[in-house]
TrEMBL record:
Domain RES: 89-246
Protein name in the entry: RES domain-containing protein
A UniProt-annotated Pfam family: RES
Source superkingdom: Bacteria
């Protein structure tokens, strides 16, 4: 008797992921109720990974002396911007303070994070500079050993032998295996400028991992959207930013709390590593397909799909405009 593997039903992990996305997007990032609900959903997904696998197989342990260089870049609109960076690259290329930290793929606005890449060209490409634009990049190195979660390892992870169809939890095991390999793509979906709200899901995952993983991890490694062969790294604020001291004064007594003399960032700028990039051209790779002229189209995630024909819309008493 022969058996054939069928696609697993989206009743477990993808269904939970869908619930997690909906809870986070329909709530507000500042709503404690929405956060707790989202954390519960994220926890349901993540706790299915055995702890020893999450910490040993899929984490990269970077020792200070063996760690690769990390490159970080900024776009410069004027010569003044270039001069500002060159005057103090350690400060102006590092993670921004929380007062001016904007939102990114793995952080909410007001939550500092250090984004970098393991190749200089990758960190420049991630900025999506226009032709004629200017970018300045610098090299950074770790000052201590850190542990980061490498999403790329999910795609090639050895999860052991395929589960038997006769196991009672066959669909759960098979669904988990496929979902973990799919997860890296989910959190690196391209996001267009002005559509930063689509970062909400990856921001929620990153915040959960930054605060709930035991032992605590310092950051994440994920593939570049702009450079297919490149990899990015994000270091969370608790390791990428020096703690900010808080000064207080009560009845004439003064003090400072929140920072220790020995505390600081785990990453530092490498002197004389600045490079000025003058963008001469930008290469594009496209997926092309014929486009019908009598169809109405709607946005489905990052793709555009056919909704129906205009005549069909009018027949139903509704009029819809194409994008």
């Amino acid at each position: 008797m022969n058996y054939t593997h069928m696609p697993y039903l989206p009743s477990d992990f993808r269904y939970q992921w869908g619930e997690f996305q909906r809870d986070w997007r329909t709530g507000t990032a500042s709503s404690m109720k929405a956060r707790n609900r989202s954390w519960t959903g994220c926890s349901r997904i993540w706790r299915s990974i055995p702890p020893h696998q999450a910490t040993m197989r899929w984490c990269g342990f970077f020792r200070r002396k063996e760690a690769p260089s990390i490159y970080r870049a900024r776009s410069c609109a004027t010569a003044g911007d270039v001069s500002k960076i060159s005057a103090d690259p350690a400060c102006n290329l590092s993670a921004p303070p929380k007062e001016i930290a904007g939102e990114g793929r793995m952080n909410l606005a007001g939550v500092p994070a250090f984004y970098g890449a393991f190749e200089r060209k990758t960190c420049v490409a991630e900025l999506r500079p226009p032709v004629g634009g200017t970018v300045v990049s610098g090299e950074f190195k770790l000052t201590g050993s850190i542990k980061v979660l490498d999403f790329g390892r999910f795609e090639s992870a050895d999860l052991g032998p395929e589960p038997s169809f006769f196991e009672s939890n066959y669909f759960e095991k098979r669904g988990r295996r496929q979902f973990l390999k799919y997860l890296h793509n989910l959190i690196t979906v391209p996001v267009l400028p002005g559509s930063e709200r689509n970062y909400l899901t990856s921001q929620a995952v990153a915040e959960y991992l930054a605060t709930h993983c035991k032992p605590r991890i310092a950051g994440l490694i994920f593939k570049s959207v702009q450079a297919p062969m490149g990899n990015n790294i994000v270091l969370f604020s608790h390791v990428a930013c020096a703690p900010t001291p808080t000064f207080w004064s009560v009845d004439g007594a003064m003090g400072v709390t929140g920072a220790k003399p020995s505390s600081g960032s785990c990453i530092e700028y490498v002197a004389d590593s600045l490079v000025y990039h003058d963008v001469r051209y930008v290469a594009h790779e496209t997926a092309d397909e014929p486009l019908s002229e009598d169809k109405t189209y709607v946005q489905t995630g990052v793709r555009v799909g056919i909704l129906t024909t205009p005549d069909e819309c009018h027949c139903r008493g509704r009029t819809r405009q194409g994008l």
